[in-house]
């Protein structure tokens, strides 16, 4: 019988184009950041990484497509928090098992949320003034998000619960609707993904009081983090990790992970990610799994606090 070399064993992956299923629409942050990564992957590995957008159901349609793909290393996807753990607490049932059906490759990106208000309609000038003002408002405050159980919604729910502020969640379709509502005075605030608000912050039309990351953001170092304004244990970031379906051979996983770690260390790539509003990241598969396990109890509790539930 002739000997047939295994592409995985010989480290020849990829020897044909790789399909990249993006569970979100074209033009969104996950799509844009995935395209930056795929461009860098193609340059290093010499094969095309072909984007296929499969949006819908909070990322579940794309995540399910990944889970059911062949375990040959030729389908991968950028999976955000929903697929890794939030959705299992939010939906009554899922078409995939996040603890069984995905093989992590590497962390991909991370970004914080930012608490913003309209400069014209909110008299507060810093975080403590905002909290005092919000607590005194008759009827409390309203906070916007891009949808139910997004990190913006969950951050807002946890924030109002922890700070003892009466708050009403108002879901929109995205920052493109949230920003005009705030500037018009129809919405009090948002704790949403930072990149969407940088232009209006820099223009002075919005005030930014705090971010939810572990460290100050490189391009807006004047904005404090939660621990600096007296709110401990409030680090809540949006992040994404690339994954294969379960069962992909270990040499392929390691080559993909090593390539992503190399990309994350490239200053040119890191600068491109920062301009797009995120920090480029690289890690081992085990570090992704450790983070998922570490954060799962927190997000389960935050979903409970929010009261969100979807079919």
From TrEMBL:
It comes from the Bacteria. It holds the Pfam family TctC. Gene3D superfamilies: Bordetella uptake gene, domain 1, Periplasmic binding protein-like II. Belongs to the UPF0065 (bug) family. This is Tripartite tricarboxylate transporter substrate-binding protein. It comes from Roseomonas populi.
């Amino acid at each position: 019988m002739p000997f047939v070399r295994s592409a995985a064993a010989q480290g020849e992956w990829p020897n044909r184009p790789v399909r990249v299923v993006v569970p979100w629409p074209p033009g969104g942050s996950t799509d844009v950041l995935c395209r930056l990564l795929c461009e860098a992957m193609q340059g290093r590995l010499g094969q095309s990484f072909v984007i296929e957008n499969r949006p819908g159901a909070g990322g579940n349609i794309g995540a399910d497509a990944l889970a059911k793909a062949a375990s040959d290393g030729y389908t991968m996807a950028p999976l955000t928090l929903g697929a890794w753990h939030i959705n299992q607490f939010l939906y009554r049932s899922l078409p995939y098992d996040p603890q069984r059906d995905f093989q992590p490759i590497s962390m991909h990106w991370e970004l914080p949320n930012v608490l913003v208000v309209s400069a014209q309609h909110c008299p507060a000038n810093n975080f403590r003034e905002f909290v005092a003002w919000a607590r005194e408002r008759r009827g409390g405050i309203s906070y916007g998000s891009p949808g139910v159980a997004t990190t913006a919604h969950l951050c807002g729910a946890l924030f109002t619960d922890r700070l003892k502020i009466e708050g009403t969640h108002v879901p929109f379709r995205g920052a493109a609707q949230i920003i005009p509502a705030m500037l018009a005075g129809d919405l009090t605030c948002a704790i949403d993904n930072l990149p969407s608000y940088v232009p209006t912050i820099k223009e002075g039309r919005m005030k930014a009081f705090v971010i939810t990351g572990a460290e100050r953001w490189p391009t807006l170092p004047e904005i404090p983090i939660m621990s600096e304004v007296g709110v401990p244990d409030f680090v809540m970031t949006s992040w994404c990790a690339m994954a294969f379906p379960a069962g992909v051979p270990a040499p392929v996983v390691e080559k993909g992970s090593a390539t992503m770690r190399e990309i994350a260390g490239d200053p040119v790539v890191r600068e491109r990610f920062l301009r797009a509003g995120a920090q480029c990241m690289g890690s081992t598969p085990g570090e992704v799994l450790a983070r998922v396990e570490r954060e799962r109890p927190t997000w389960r509790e935050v979903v409970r606090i929010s009261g969100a539930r979807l079919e």
